[in-house]
Amino acid sequence: xxxxxxxxxxLFNTTNIVILVVILLLTLYPLWxxxxxxxxxxxxxxxxxxxxxxKDISFAGYKSIFHDSSILRGYFNTILYTVxxxxxxxxxxxxxxxxxxxxxFVGGKFFTIMFLITMFFSxxxxxxxxxxxxxxxxxxxxxxxxxxxxxxxNIIITRTFFQTTIPTEVxxxxxxxxxxxxxxxxxxxxxxxxxxxxxxxLFSAVAHWNGYFTAxxxxxxxxxxxxxxxxxxxxxxxxxxxxxxxQGGDTAGLLQEELRAAEQIKYALIVIASLPVxxxxxxxxxxxxxxxxxxxxxx
Length: 299
What we know:
Structural class: mainly alpha
InterPro entries: MetI-like (IPR000515), MetI-like_sf (IPR035906)
Organism: Paenibacillus lutimineralis
Membrane topology: Multi-pass membrane protein
Family: Belongs to the binding-protein-dependent transport system permease family.
Number of helices: 14
Helix content: over 70%
Number of strands: 0
Keywords: Cell membrane, Membrane, Transmembrane, Transmembrane helix, Transport
């Protein structure tokens, strides 16, 4: 039976659609502008003549970036840190969340309180730096995947999922049939927890891909720097060259060319750094929304 819409309903729906379309355009425009600016003439971008579609198309910014071997090395390192770090995050988070969700876990409340304390108090940058250096992780790629291998917020979300989604009767029935705790976790609980595993994988992967501060503090060797650090150094180098030319006096032509290249490289770097996550997001959006709902409603 089809419900007949009143004039008030039609007005309400139309208003909602208009508002949502405006919000969509406001969200998409900055992204589209950056993509267009990365392949447009920098002079037209700076003068405000390029507002939507690319003008005087040139891929010089992308060519400059990919001629630099450090960019490709940074990409490989970031993929390595993202995959390795996500796997470690998943193992630690899911296992800790499951243990804290069990009512028969001895000392569960004590460990939960100890974990919660770390959400509000940290050791600070200098003690953390000294600890990292003393255990041999300074300037090592392992620091990118081990430091911050878990998040208490994610553990709480995971624990809540296990408590509210996995029926206790299922676990009890498996134990009555002689299932050990490890087998119960691997063969009963995990197959029923694909949603929370996907959510935690998404959260961890995005965090590792955008990881910047850890590498800035603890990584000095060029061969282990992630993409975010390499892109920052590339941008700073192009701007530094422009400043040197500016101080040269009679090199106005070179200065103008360097400034134009730096401007185009800036937009191209943003596209390169954001593209993998933006390409992945549409496929995992439903898990992302589900994870946010789990944390906000039941956390």
